[in-house]
Specification:
The structure holds two protein chains of two kinds. By secondary structure, chain A is mainly alpha-helical. Chain A has one domain. Chain A has helices spanning 3-13, 19-22, 28-46, 51-78, 88-104, 115-126; one strand at 108-111. In chain A, helix 3 (28-46) packs antiparallel against helix 4. The longest helix of chain A is centred in the middle third of the chain and has 28 residues, at 51-78. Residues 1-7 and 13-23 of chain A have low confidence and may be disordered. Chain B folds into two domains: 2-97, RelE-like (YaeB-like fold, 2-Layer Sandwich), CATH 3.30.2310.20; 100-105 and 118-229, no CATH class. Helices cover 24% and strands 41% of the residues of chain B. Chain B contains four helices and twelve strands. Chain B has helices at 14-21, 24-39, 44-49, 204-229; strands spanning 8-11, 51-52, 58-63, 66-74, 87-97, 100-105, 118-133, 136-145, 151-160, 169-174, 180-186, 191-198. Chain B has a seven-stranded mixed barrel. In chain B, strands 1-5-4-3-2 form a five-stranded mixed sheet. The N and C termini of chain B lie far apart (50 Å). The chains are: A mainly alpha, B alpha+beta.
């Protein structure tokens, strides 16, 4: 197997996971805006900022949430594929994160030496 | 020597599902690769031949048509010095076949025709490209049918990072008419892909960009193939 083949083959399957760029769902920007607004409201509370600032952010957050819900319902009925996370990067990242989470939860098998795989292979071949 | 090896963990489906399903030559190649990885996970040879993603996971083609993904977990106390921290264990996160099981709905033959039948095929990648033109980007992989050997179509993922903003969307571009279809890709040891109906609401900018790029890539691919033959 040529090195260039390997590289291009892997590039297809492991493109740098960058969810910000991949915009996996059409509603990503609205979700990010909500997250930023919540962070802003919390920060204003800690900083004892004037009440009107927090109220202003809360109103903007409410508008954003309303647009998000309306858009979600619209796309759910009219263009459901727009809500799916279809980016290849996203799917690879999703698989890797799921597996990492499972391993952290203790769902794995451990070998002290990969040569044990060779033993299994030899036994299988002899059978 | 066995005692100095870094422990290696496998995802739960590996031993019972994926390892037995690998052909013997691929099992042999994977076992050899993992033995090397356990001895020297940071060896320049491995790093040079592998690809690394933004979260520090690696991918390597251990045999034609097969890929393995892993991460090296290091001592927790030395998180700030990850590059030099000694490896605590290796976690094998996935082993994948590059071929994809494809299923698609056959187009209706006309009025009174029987309900749509599902067609199945096994496709493999024969060419890949990616490009960026201004704010528009896309990558694509050309696939041929394992059954007929004929070119089947492209998987394309297109998006933009500036006006006109377009979220990342994967399409199946059938060959040779380049009709763009909705698709659903499920990645695992045996990846599957379902081709849906034609996307009739595609953004015109995306449509023109994808079509023009695919025509160019097709020429590039044919040119490369002709060089291989001559």
């Amino acid at each position: 197997m040529k090195a260039s083949d390997v590289t291009s083959s892997i590039r297809d399957f492991i493109r740098a996971a960058d969810i910000g760029r991949s915009r996996s769902s059409i509603l990503n920007q609205l979700q990010w805006t909500m997250a930023i607004l919540i962070a802003g409201i919390v920060a204003f509370q800690f900083a004892h900022a004037p009440t009107w600032l927090s109220v202003f952010l809360a109103i903007v957050f409410g508008l954003d949430a309303a647009v998000f819900l309306s858009a979600f319902l619209y796309f759910m009925l009219k263009r459901p594929h727009s809500l799916r996370s279809e980016s290849f990067d996203y799917k690879m990242t999703e698989l890797m994160r799921r597996r990492t989470g499972e391993m952290e939860a203790g769902l794995y098998e451990e070998l002290s030496a990969s040569s044990d795989l060779k033993v299994q292979l030899k036994e299988h071949t002899e059978q | 020597m066995k005692d100095s090896l870094i422990p290696i963990r496998f995802y739960k489906e590996f031993m019972k599902r994926d390892w037995p399903d690998l052909p013997l030559h691929a099992q042999d190649a994977l076992a050899n690769f993992l033995m090397t990885l356990q001895k020297t996970p940071d060896s320049p040879e491995i790093i040079a031949g592998a690809q690394r993603d933004a979260e520090g996971r690696f991918g390597y083609g251990f045999s034609p048509g097969f890929l393995v993904y892993w991460r090296v977990v290091r001592e927790p106390s030395m998180i700030m010095q990850r590059v030099t921290a000694s490896p605590e264990r290796i976690e094998v996160l996935a082993v994948l076949k590059t071929e994809i099981n494809l299923s698609e709905r056959a187009p209706e033959a006309g009025p009174g025709a029987l309900p749509e039948a599902e067609q199945k095929d096994l496709i493999e990648r024969v060419y890949s490209q990616k490009t960026t033109v201004g704010s528009l980007s896309m990558w694509g992989t050309l696939h041929s049918s394992r059954t007929t050997g004929r070119v089947k179509g492209w998987i394309v993922d297109s998006w933009s990072e500036g006006p006109p903003y377009m979220h990342s969307k994967m399409h199946w571009a059938s060959f040779p008419d380049y009709k763009l279809h909705h698709m659903q890709l499920n990645i695992d040891f045996s990846s599957t892909m379902e081709i849906g109906p034609e996307d009739t609401e595609i953004d015109p900018v995306r449509l023109v960009f994808v079509h023009a790029t695919l025509r160019q890539w097709e020429q590039d691919w044919l040119s490369e193939e002709s060089k291989k033959i001559s």
